[in-house]
Every structure is written in structure tokens, then in C-alpha cells.
């Protein structure tokens, strides 16, 4: 049982296991959120809107032609319809552009948040590993120093006893 716990501890502490666990979490998150479906829907909405704008523009052009043919003497009415069609096309175009920019900003914001979260996670892991390595190096240095100079061992013990005596008084 102890060997199993030691093996399990090695697996849990391994970078590969942590990486696989992180990939699995991201997989389930992306599967749950279904980002590709959302992006495809947004793309299709934009394509549909652009097609609608083109159809509206074409329809406005057709109406203009019909008006010219049916009412050749009413130039002012034709100019008004042309201005109205251009204003409608410009309005729809502006709306599409604004909506597209908002969606792009939203997607960029979400991507930046995901990147920032991952950066914080990696930074925390690196800091933890660096601290553990520093403690291990310091411990080895103290052990090696005491092995090289055993007189320091006695000196440190005496100093500690003196400090304890001073604290008790």
C-alpha cells in the first residue's frame, strides 16, 4: 500500500500528469462551451447580414430603375428614393460594422482573460518549484558545511543552548 501511495504521489507531482489533467479540463470546458459552434454561428450571422444588405441594396437599385421608367418626369422623387436607399444601406452597413467590432472585442477579451489566467497559473507553479529548489539547495549547503566542519555543529548547538538559557531567565 505504501508503494502504491508513493507511486501515486510521483504521478500526481509529475508535470506530464498535471499537463494531461489541464488538457482534459480545457477539453471538457471547450466541449461544454462549444466555442467553435458559437464562432460558426457568429460567422453565419455576419454572412447572412451581409447578404441581406446586398439584397436590400439590389432591391433599392431595382426600385430606383422602376421609378425612373415609370415616372420619368419626377426627377425629384427619384433623387429622394436614391438618397433614402443609400442612407438605408449606410445605416445597415454601419450597424453591421459596429456589431462585428463588438463581437471581435468580446472574443479578444475572452481570449485575453484565458491567456492571463494561464499565465498566472504557470507563474504560480514556477514560483512553487523555485522555492522548493531553493529550500533543497539551502538544506544541502548546511548539511555539507556541517560535514566539512564538524566544529561548527558543536558551536551551533552551544549557541542554541545559550539562547534557550537566556530566554528562560
Automatic annotation (TrEMBL):
GO cellular component: endomembrane system; proton-transporting ATP synthase complex
Keywords noted in UniProt: ATP synthesis, CF(0), Hydrogen ion transport, Ion transport, Membrane, Transmembrane, Transmembrane helix, Transport
Pfam families (alphabetical): ATP-synt_B
Signal peptide: none
A biological process from GO: proton motive force-driven ATP synthesis
Transmembrane residue ranges: 12-30
GO MF terms, alphabetically ordered: proton transmembrane transporter activity
Annotated compartments: Endomembrane system
Superkingdom to which the source organism belongs: Bacteria
Entry keyword Chloroplast: no
Location, primary (coarse class): membrane
Presence of keyword Iron: no
InterPro entries tied to this protein: ATP_synth_b/b'su_bac/chlpt (IPR002146)
Bilayer disposition of the protein: Single-pass membrane protein
Described function: F(1)F(0) ATP synthase produces ATP from ADP in the presence of a proton or sodium gradient. F-type ATPases consist of two structural domains, F(1) containing the extramembraneous catalytic core and F(0) containing the membrane proton channel, linked together by a central stalk and a peripheral stalk. During catalysis, ATP synthesis in the catalytic domain of F(1) is coupled via a rotary mechanism of the central stalk subunits to proton translocation.
Family statement: Belongs to the ATPase B chain family.
Protein name: ATP synthase subunit b
Source organism (scientific name): Candidatus Scatousia excrementigallinarum
